[in-house]
Each structure stands twice: as C-alpha cells, then as structure tokens.
Amino acid sequence: MSGVWVFRNGVVRLVENPGAESLDGNRQGSNTRRKVLVHTPSNEVITSYAVLERNLLSLGWERYYDDPDLLQFHKRSTVHLISLPKDFNKFKSMHMYDIVVKNRNVFEVRDM
Fold first, then answer.
1. Going along the chain, which residue ranges are E strands?
2. Structure confidence at residue 16 (pLDDT)
3. How confident is the model at residue 21 (pLDDT cuts 50, 70, 90)?
4. What's the mean pLDDT in 76-81?
5. How many domains does the chain have?
6. Dihedral of CA 50/53/59/62: which sign?
7. DSSP type of residue 32
C-alpha cells in the first residue's frame, strides 16, 4: 500500500495517488480514474440517489429525514448509519466504500 495518509475534519484516510487528488478531496488530473458504485446482484451502476435508495430499501435500510443537508439510511438490525451528501455530485469514493463495508457482497466499487 503506497500513498499519503491525510488527516482532515477528524478523519484519517489514505490518498493512493497524492498528485491526482488534492488535500480537500477534489480531483486535479485528467488521467485519474473515476470510481463507480455497482450493485453486484444486478451489475447495475448506481447513477443517482434514487437508484441507490431503491437498492438500500430492498435490503432493509430505512431513510432518516432528521438532517436536511444529508441523506441518511439506518438498518434496524444494526448500529450502522449511512450518511451521504445531499448533492449526488459530491458523492465520493469514501461514501461508496462506506456503503460497501455495510453491505458486504451486495455492492462494490469499480474503476470506470
């Protein structure tokens, strides 16, 4: 594993290609690969929050409406909470991996 560990807003994460991503999480280079979230049972790429919500609801996740700035989902049988930015354009790979970890064998992150 190579890269740079970045600490921002109380979260530590590994930036694998520090030249391609600035410290604020924005992509800089045109040669960077975009990540996509894929629903593996249907091999469907998640292209909107409507598609994601449909898949999460079918897995037993419930939508929370407490915070107007976030899309939040909770699963009653767990302590897990998925928090996503309201704007799908701000949906980053860290959000995708959060969904993958909390829904093993149902979603995966792929390079586009």
1. 4-8, 11-15, 35-39, 44-45, 61-64, 70-75, 81-85, 107-111
2. 75
3. very low
4. 91
5. 1
6. negative
7. P
